[in-house]
Amino acid sequence: MELSKRLMAVAGLVKKGDRPADIGCDHGYISIYLIKEKVCSSMIAMDINKGPLLRAKENVEREGLSPYIETRLSDGANALLEGEADTLILAGMGGKLTIHIVEEALKRLTCIRNLILQPQSEIWLVRQFLIEQKFFIVKEEMVYEDGKYYPMMRAQLKKDSSTMTYSKEEACYGPLLLKSKHPVLYDYLQWEKQTITETIKKLGDLGEDEKALRRRERKKELADKLQCIETCLTMF
Fold first, then answer.
1. Domain limits of the chain?
2. Which of 171, 97, 94 is nearest to 130 (CA)?
């Protein structure tokens, strides 16, 4: 079994000694990898769908890891009990769904101290949510695979009461990715800059009808985003 580049990067954010629950585990590949590499001594692999969970269970059994990995049918982290895990892994979900699942888990569980998140969209919302929940980002990674860019992060619960904020650029593109001048982020910024520039050129704004007004509003939104990208690029 070989992990994809994306899943390998997600697994790389897990620290030795973490007790993770992989939410939306799909085929269970991350859990299997972390146990085989002795990063973790036990795992709970959870999924809302019976089909993927059955495949995960079959994969776990095939690897002889049933004593170390429990598969569990669960809507989000709802089937996770207090004290069973200290780390949640959520990879490949939309940003709003990621937030919803984590928020519901944190309402019930006081044992969660670490979050390994790889949202597929609206990642700026996820970063702002982490601040609200008093989690701070301690590590970020970004990979390019099969024509797509995948940012991800490890966040830990803050032990003190100090507050933190992100700038617009940090919220959109990652405080640690920017600080480290991550080469994949640089490529992504260049790609997004070109894409937005071409889109702005294609949007006409002549006329005073409703469609023209919407196009002008859209162009302004894109121009603001383009300015944010330009600011980020000056950091490299």
1. 5-167, 185-233
2. 171
Instruction: For the chain, state the CA radius of gyration.
Output: 20
Residues 6+ apart with CB under 8 A from 76: 23, 48, 100, 101, 104, 105
User: 206-215: b or e for each residue (b if 16 or more CB lie within 10 Å)?
Assistant: eeeeeeeeeb
> For 36, what's the count of Cα atoms within 13 Å in the CB-facing half-sphere?
17
Tell me what pLDDT residue 9 has: 98
Question: Cβ distance 173 to 189 under 8 Å?
Answer: yes
* Residue 125: CA count within 13 A, CB half-sphere: 13
pLDDT attached to residue 28:
96
Q: Is 214 helix (H, G, I), strand (E, B) or coil?
A: helix
Q: Any alpha helices (H) in the chain, and if so which ranges?
A: 5-11, 29-36, 50-62, 95-108, 123-132, 168-173, 175-179, 183-202, 210-233
CATH of 5-167, one of 3.40.50.720, 1.10.10.10, 3.40.50.150, 1.25.40.20: 3.40.50.150
Q: Is residue 41 over pLDDT 70?
A: yes
pTM of this structure: 0.93
The maximal CA–CA distance of the chain, rounded, in angstroms, is: 68
